[in-house]
Amino acid sequence: MNKEILHTNNAPEAVGPYSQAILVNGVIYTSGQLGLNPSTGTLENGIENQTNRAMKSIGEILKTKGATYKNIVKTTIFVKDLEQFGIINSIYESFFDGGYPSRSCVEVARLPKDGLVEIEVVAVL
């Protein structure tokens, strides 16, 4: 197996013993991205800003291998309040130009750092 750890300073540092993403055999697996500001390490305010920041961080991680949102084949969204999914969905949708990846969304009791949303993706090069 050919495994490569991916890292960029343009996305938040991992808040635990894990990597921002791993590349294995042409497939990128990102860790869940919270709405953390990569410069300060603090959560953005509100669901809109956290969702937007999480998606931007995913894009920055993908860029490390020349990938874009078009390379994403699967996303998983963890949300603290499913009532906010309409807001999350409209922001999420704005990062794609059709051809959406498959997706799961799960409401959870709590996220790290008390985030409101966390998004992870699988992308194929």
Distinctive features:
125 residues
General description of the model:
The protein has helices spanning 46-63, 85-93; strands at 3-6, 21-24, 27-30, 72-79, 102-107, 117-124. The radius of gyration is 14 Å and the shape is globular. With 125 residues, it is of the alpha+beta class. It has a six-stranded mixed sheet, with helices on one face. A hairpin with a 2-residue loop joins strand 2 and strand 3 (27-30). The chain starts with a strand and ends with a strand. Helix 1 packs parallel to helix 2. The protein has a single domain (3-124), classed as 60s Ribosomal Protein L30, Chain: A. The mean pLDDT is 97.
Strands, helices and their partners?
Elements (H helix, E strand, L loop, with lengths): L2 E4 L14 E4 L2 E4 L15 H18 L8 E8 L5 H9 L8 E6 L9 E8 L1
Parallel strand pairs: 4-5
Antiparallel strand pairs: 1-2, 2-3, 3-6, 4-6
- Report Rg: 14 Å
CATH class: Alpha Beta
Based on the structure given, which CATH architecture is correct?
2-Layer Sandwich
Number of domains: 1
Percent strand equals 25-35%
List SSEs in N-to-C order. EEEHEHEE
Structural class, please?
Answer: alpha+beta
Mean pLDDT: 97
Could you say which overall geometry the principal axes of the C-alpha atoms support?
globular
Q: Could you describe the largest sheet, including whether it forms a barrel?
A: 6 strands, mixed
CATH fold name: 60s Ribosomal Protein L30, Chain: A
Strand order of the largest sheet: 1-2-3-6-4-5
Spatial separation of the terminal alpha carbons: 16 Å
Number-wise, the strands total: 6
Helix content: 10-25%
Low-confidence stretches: none
Assign the CATH superfamily: RutC-like
Number of separate helices: 2
